[in-house]
C-alpha cells in the first residue's frame, strides 16, 4: 500500500500533467483515475458507484436529448456521428472539491460529442452551423460556451463547447468538432502524422 500511494502520487504530479501537455487526454484521465483509486479509495468508490447507479438514466436522457438534433442534422444531410462521454472520476472529484458541491451538483458529469465529417476548409462553418441547430432546439447557457475552434488551445485542442438546458431542467454539455479535431483531442497533436 505504501508503494502504491507513492507511485499514485508521483503519477498525479508528474505523468498525468505530461500527458495533458502532449494532448493525450484519454491517457491523462486514465492516469488520474488510477491514481485516485489508491490515494483516496473511498472517494473513488463513492463516485464510481454513483456513476454506475445513474448510467441508465443518463443513457435515456441522451437518447431523448439527441432526437431533435439528429433529425435536423439528417434533414440537412450532415455526415456525423455522436459520442457520449462521462467525466472522469478524478475530474468529478476535483470539481466537487473546487466548487464545494456533492456529486449531484456537478452538472456536466457527462457530455455529448457531435463529430462531423467535413472538408478542412469548411470545418469552422460546419461546426457553427451545428451549434446553431443545437441552440435553436435547447436553451443555451451563454456563460458555459467555449470556442476553441476560432482560437485553439496552445496544445492544439479544437472544439466548440456549449451547455444547454432541456425542458425538464437537465443540463447537458455538447461538444462539436470534426473527425480531424476529435482525433487530435483523443490522441494528441501527433495523431495525424502516423
Question: What's this model, at a glance?
Answer:
This protein has 194 residues and is of the alpha+beta class. It contains 7 helices and 5 strands. It has helices at residues 2-21, 25-39, 41-53, 55-75, 89-99, 123-137, 179-187, and strands at residues 80-86, 110-116, 139-147, 160-165, 171-178.
What does this structure look like?
The protein is an alpha+beta fold and 194 residues long. Helix content is 54%, strand content 19%. It contains seven helices and five strands. Strands 1-2-5-4-3 form a five-stranded mixed beta sheet. Helix 2 (25-39) packs across helix 3 (41-53) and helix 4 (55-75) crosses helix 6 (123-137). It is globular, with a radius of gyration of 18 Å. It starts with a helix and ends in a 7-residue tail after the last helix. The mean pLDDT is 89.
Topology:
Elements: H1 2-21, H2 25-39, H3 41-53, H4 55-75, E1 80-86, H5 89-99, E2 110-116, H6 123-137, E3 139-147, E4 160-165, E5 171-178, H7 179-187
Parallel strand pairs: 2-5
Antiparallel strand pairs: 1-2, 3-4, 4-5
Helix pairs in contact: 1-2, 2-3, 3-5, 4-6
**Structural Rg:** 18 Å
Structural class estimated from helices and strands: alpha+beta
Which strand order do you get reading across the main beta sheet? 1-2-5-4-3
Roughly what percent helix? 40-55%
Uncertain spans? none
Globular, elongated, flat, extended or rod-shaped: what is the shape? globular
Return the string of H and E elements: HHHHEHEHEEEH
Amino acid at each position: 500500500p505504501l508503494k502504491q500511494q507513492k507511485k499514485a502520487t508521483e503519477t498525479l504530479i508528474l505523468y498525468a500533467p505530461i500527458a495533458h501537455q502532449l494532448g493525450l487526454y484519454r491517457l491523462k484521465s486514465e492516469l488520474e483515475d488510477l491514481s485516485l483509486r489508491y490515494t483516496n479509495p473511498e472517494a473513488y468508490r463513492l463516485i464510481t458507484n454513483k456513476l454506475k447507479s445513474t448510467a441508465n438514466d443518463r443513457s435515456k436522457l441522451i437518447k431523448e436529448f439527441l432526437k431533435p438534433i439528429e433529425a435536423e442534422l439528417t434533414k440537412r444531410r450532415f455526415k456525423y456521428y455522436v459520442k457520449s462521454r462521462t467525466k472522469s472520476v478524478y475530474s468529478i472529484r476535483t470539481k466537487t472539491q473546487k466548487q464545494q458541491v456533492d456529486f449531484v451538483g456537478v452538472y456536466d458529469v457527462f457530455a455529448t460529442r457531435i463529430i462531423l465529417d467535413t472538408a478542412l476548409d469548411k470545418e469552422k462553418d460546419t461546426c457553427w452551423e451545428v451549434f446553431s441547430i443545437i441552440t435553436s432546439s435547447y436553451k443555451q447557457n451563454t456563460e458555459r460556451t467555449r470556442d476553441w475552434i476560432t482560437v485553439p488551445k496552445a496544445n492544439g485542442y479544437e472544439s466548440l463547447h456549449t451547455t444547454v438546458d432541456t425542458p425538464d431542467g437537465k443540463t447537458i454539455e455538447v461538444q462539436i468538432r470534426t473527425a480531424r479535431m476529435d482525433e487530435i483531442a483523443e490522441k494528441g497533436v501527433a495523431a495525424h502524422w502516423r
